[in-house]
Give the backbone structure.
Amino acid sequence: MRDRDGGLTMAPGRVGDVRRRNLALVLGCIGPDTRATRADIAAATGLTKASVSSLVSELLETGLVEELGVTRAGERGRPGVGLALSSRPVALGAELNVDYLAVGAVDLHGNLHFHEVAEAPNRGRAPREVLGELSGLAARCASAAMDAGMTLLGGGLAVPGLVDPARGVVLAAPNLEWRDASLSPALGELAPEAPFGVALSNEADSAALAELWYGHGSAFGAYLYVSGEVGVGGGLVMGSKLFAGPGGHAGEVGHVVVEPGGRRCSCGGRGCLETVAGQEAILAAAGITDGGSTTAARMAALQAALEAGDAQAITAVERAGHYLGIAVVSAARVVDLSAVVLGGHFAALSGWIRPALLSSLDGFAPGVIAQEAVAFSELGTTAALRGAAGAALRRALAAPYALLA
Amino acid sequence: MRDRDGGLTMAPGRVGDVRRRNLALVLGCIGPDTRATRADIAAATGLTKASVSSLVSELLETGLVEELGVTRAGERGRPGVGLALSSRPVALGAELNVDYLAVGAVDLHGNLHFHEVAEAPNRGRAPREVLGELSGLAARCASAAMDAGMTLLGGGLAVPGLVDPARGVVLAAPNLEWRDASLSPALGELAPEAPFGVALSNEADSAALAELWYGHGSAFGAYLYVSGEVGVGGGLVMGSKLFAGPGGHAGEVGHVVVEPGGRRCSCGGRGCLETVAGQEAILAAAGITDGGSTTAARMAALQAALEAGDAQAITAVERAGHYLGIAVVSAARVVDLSAVVLGGHFAALSGWIRPALLSSLDGFAPGVIAQEAVAFSELGTTAALRGAAGAALRRALAAPYALLA
DNA sequence: CCCATATAGTTCAGGACACATACTAATTCT
DNA sequence: AGAATTAGTATGTGTCCTGAACTATATGGG
């Protein structure tokens, strides 16, 4: 049953909810380095010092928070005890992509540890086999973390495709040639002991969140992330969270119509952004048909051509930037955004894409997206992995009571 | 200060919050006709019968809920007492538009009472003067409601322009030629006694919500509402609420780029939907330059031309439908929607627009928006007013404790 | 007609938790 | 050294949900 506002908030409010909420609230005031004291938190939240004390002592029990010892000499009065997020709890981040597998452990300070990448031709390979290999990497990473005295809270696995996070199923991953692949048993084995489990996510969504937490997004608060890969994906971040949309697939700018008279798209539509700004489309327009059999190798050849000043290559990339601008404007209009972060090959080609994109934005919607609000990702291939791990960390921070006896 | 999830939930959870939440929760189980009993509610919410009894008795005090007397004979056991939303509380809905003013009172069953429309040439008129006239209408409506034994909870005023609801300011209403007009003192006078005050809203947003609560939207749950007026506005409804976006102006499909090589738009951009599907654009393409000085009169002439089978008029409208489809597809892709409701002149021209729109949707994004998911508004000119009143009613239902001593 | 059974709703003790107030602790200013 | 100032803790009170016992009102079988 749904309440009148449509939220699934049919659960009754119990007395204990207040404490749970306040635990998360207090934890939210404690940053990696803020050295907030109990008194600061009381002032910030409006809770009494008594309540904060009691809440903090429970948070200390969870291991998420540490006391830093007496802080701030020089002012009058008894000095407070600084509180900060511990750097011992970590989450496992993993990415399963067409050409490689990657894992790493991210702590609450945002540091990436034990990062490891393994090349692997996963296209068309059986999910079981791929996950077996990933499992080995994850186990190494997890045991290295254990040896370093860290504790594993949870994990996240990002894949290039449509997922159902609740059931742990990859609905469709065309570039892997997977359909309806249930990863949920394998996810459990990636981090068996982790209290918050391992969640499945879309790679573009995870990268979008990584940008928010560890990259450029933090400066914006609300933005569209566009990830250029073989396809063109995207994620919408607003109010410091991913906006999934009613069906869970919001932010798919790859199939916004940017050229009504344009080519057919694999989605069945026509004139989609992907048909003019996807990797294959750019390569074709640039006339790069050789340079290696894989798309990645040919992208490298494109880069070389651009650096050599090849006119056809430059035109091809500028054209992509132009159409990218149209899609961004349309998205900005629909959801009222004013910033974009570009990742994947758009980031790699930023030098050539940026001017075309800016002039397109200015031509189609002057003033909507400022120059400073166009950012290019610097997280590279760690983005998805960091985002997946970050999401797991935030699940823990949102439910600290789950760590209490 | 914001917590880690970005919500402005920095307010501490207090013990009393539980009750407030549960009051709204229980109220959410009581519909206009559901005849839910206390026992039903206990079962549905998970609250104990004791708690529900206590909560219900407070809700009865607010006057929002009524006991219908003993219900359900024929089954074993003591019969329960049916509960339903009272039809005495109402909210005032008002619309201030270019050509007319309208008011009405909407009750919790969704019935519109004392609806009154007054033609008024408001373009370029001073806000004070217009609101004075509106005030007279509102007073008549309110006193009629009082005489009928109703109580006024709150109200809403919808205007065709960008608003800041929090401050009660019309930021820009080009068709009224208003800029930065503060209506907040006048809003207070529209319903001085109403405990929930009078809120200012955008007309398209209100119409979008009216569709959700009193029209086609209830069948969809999530949809894009596109309102064709002089300009083309819109509202995004998801999760049974209006999605405002980070800046508060989401759903503005009027300026989605649908024709990259197209005409300049008043917004400074190029190829916007409004330049091909706004009233002026359609009229110009249809070759209708006479038929009266006002746009409304010329739209009537267009209608006549269409009915007479005028080829140029038909082509013009079909062209608008074609481009409307492109904008809808782009919006659907960005926020993952699968339904549209069309209002304003799009609804008036539905017979001619519908086929063109459907074929456009099918061409650009087959399968994304099904035929059954394209609806045309039937609320006509009461839409904005009903939406504004409905929002006021829902504010009351969300905060029933505000009505208690 | 009376009693078993079933369901609706109320009363009351118990527990969780935030709050207010008063207290102790630790530091700086004079 | 003592006053002033700020941090953090201890204790009693009020709110409100829970659970169990209780009352109220219906049906159905003997």
Residues 1-9 of chain A have pLDDT under 50 and may be disordered. Residues 212 and 303 of chain A are 28 Å apart (CA to CA). The longest strand of chain A covers residues 151-159. Chain A touches chain B through 77 residues (CB under 8 Å).
